[in-house]
Amino acid sequence: MDDVCDLRWRPGQTVVERFLRPDGSVGQQHPLRVLSDDGRVLTAWLPAGTGIMASRLADGRALREAPLAERFRTARTSVPAIWHETSTLRRIADDEWSSVWWFFDAECRFQGWYVNLEIPLGRSAAGPDRMDGILDVVVTPDGGWSWKDEDEADAAVAAGRLTVAQLVRLRAEGERVGELVERRAYPFDGTGTDFRPEPGWPAPLLPG
User: Fold this and answer.
1) For 72-122, how does the pLDDT look when each residue is reduced to its tens digit (9 = 90+)?
2) 164-182 vs 150-158: helix axis angle to the nearest 10?
3) Are 42 and 151 in contact (CB under 8 A)?
4) What's the DSSP call for residue 6?
């Protein structure tokens, strides 16, 4: 059997990006259609309308329905859901504390980038494993960028969901990404903004 570190996925294959919780349990799961993979960087597609596993609070509330002070102190559960109205092209590098998501509307017009700050956890046979870093970066098509969810990240540290050291590392990653944006360097140089999925591609499916 190949070592997990040597796993590579073929174009057209479906993999599942899993977001693990600090206790090792699996939270969200996103099925992705592989576009390319060199063993370190995976590029994949998640179209609107795809079935995913999402997270809710165990009491039934959506995460953002809970006051910030409760949001990271209440048990969570995974529930079936549908990926929202936009499609995403994703670049996920095994050794980077972020993944870059290109957002497209229903007509496949580029809407901007979302940089999901994450803790990389390697690859399983099913796909890449990550832990969501709460803090994120939003990048507009004209090259502006801003932090997102700074208050949530602070609340996650206070609740023990993230450590201070992890948040420092995540913020440093966001600063690194911001420098790339300001220089219009890859992946914020226009690469991928004209992406179109192959006609007739079915939506990727979660394993039954």
Assistant:
1) 999 999 999 999 889 999 999 999 999 999 999 999 999 999 999 999 999
2) 160
3) no
4) G
Other Cβ atoms closer than 10 A to 189: 13
Query: Which one, of 127, 48, 132, lies nearest residue 82 by Cα?
Result: 48
Alpha helices of 9-85 — where are they, by DSSP H? 68-71
Residue with tokens 């609740």: 159
pTM for the whole structure: 0.94
Give CA–CA dist 8/192, Å, rounded: 21
Distance CA 90, CA 168 (A): 24
Strand 128-139 and strand 145-148: the pairing is antiparallel
| pLDDT of amino acid 6 | 66
Q: Please, which residues bridge with residue 137 across strands?
A: 115, 147
Q: Which residues contact 156 (CB under 8 A, 6 or more apart)?
A: 72, 134, 162, 167
- Give the whole-angstrom CA distance, residue 52 versus residue 207: 10
91 Cα distance to chain centroid? 9
Q: Running DSSP on this structure, what letter comes out for residue 197?
A: P
C-alpha 138/C-alpha 146 separation (Å) is: 5
- What 3-state class would DSSP assign to 102? strand
Contacts 24+ apart (CB under 8 A), 60-65: none
Residue 14: CA count within 13 A, CB half-sphere: 16
